[in-house]
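Fold it.
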Amino acid sequence: MKILFLTPQVPYPTISGGTIKSFKILEHLSTNHEVSLGCLIKSPQEQVNLTQYKEVKPKLNIFSFNLERKRNFKTLLSSYLLSLPLTIYRNYSFNLKKKVDLIAHKYDVIFIDHYLMFQYIPSNFRGRIVIHQHNAEFIMWSRYAKLVKNPIKKLLLYIESYRIKHYELDMIERAHTTLAAPNDKTALTKIGANPKKFLNTFHLGDASNLTLENLTFEKTRLNILYIGTLTWEANIDGLLWFLKYSWPLIKAQLPNVVFTIAGKCSPQISRKLLKLEPKINLLGFVDQLDELYQAHRVFICPLRFGSGIKVKVINSLSRGVPTVMTPIAAEGIKLDNEVHAYVTNDPTDFATCVLDLLTNKKKWLFFNEQSRILMHKNYTWDKVFNNIDKSLLLTNKNITEDL
């Protein structure tokens, strides 16, 4: 089968949930099919990433086009004039569109990796269309709007959520199959998407975490760990919330506690974080994470908006690091509060849960064991690939779930 895989960024290096998933899907599809990759290059670093990816995957047919369209008022106004959601317009490349129009007829399937790329499907394409929804995008924008205090920004965010919602519904209606996390599928079907068009998928992380030797309470230290890319607004917002409201309560009880943040971070965001806690251990991007997992007693994920499944949570649970998270961070994962992790959106309760896991060995060991059992049972790449394979072949009438 010939597959055209379209994605908005280079799926390498695998430093975020999105790039991990895209990389793994491409790797799987290329094993059994003839795959071509089309992507956008939005920075000099992404051009470097693409060069490195071609070295890793020399047999993969890749074409790319440069695109830089900044997020500003002029761009927003242009998106209104063209009746397109802002993110769709910002990811539009005339050259990529022209290229896909010329070659689409050669492919059996166009695999859309992220809704941003749906705009590149030719209107006359008669092959199979598969969409991989990384998130229910309209949900992220509406949740963000609820948190924003500036009334003008709030209004603009709600308008954007509305525009994206209708774009996603139209997209799903045209596609043959949409791969989405269970929570995103629920959100999209609630607003009118056809449930028969969906197959479940999960964003998973480093599968080797499940094969590593179990952690021990004694070898960890009185350390709290957060891992996440701090170029994403949801990660920044969640960390600032934690540092403002939960961290002081934890530090008051355990003055020697250390808080470590690993992830790409701009100087501006670093200054904001260090202003709230000058002694924070701010590492930047870390390639090998297991030393951090072994040294830290508790993992946190204080997200207040977002959608989809959070890979940082999948990784912490798979490695067996007892985790405290918000309900949004736990979405899409069938876990039980106080069994596999602590789940709360109250900042005082969040601090109490972290303190409990830092000091309560019995509870720590229980979470450590139960989280890994859950991940082994339900969250492996083989199960994800089963439904991806089905998405290429099944008609809407005979879709059956494996997940």
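Residues 396-400 have pLDDT under 50 and may be disordered.
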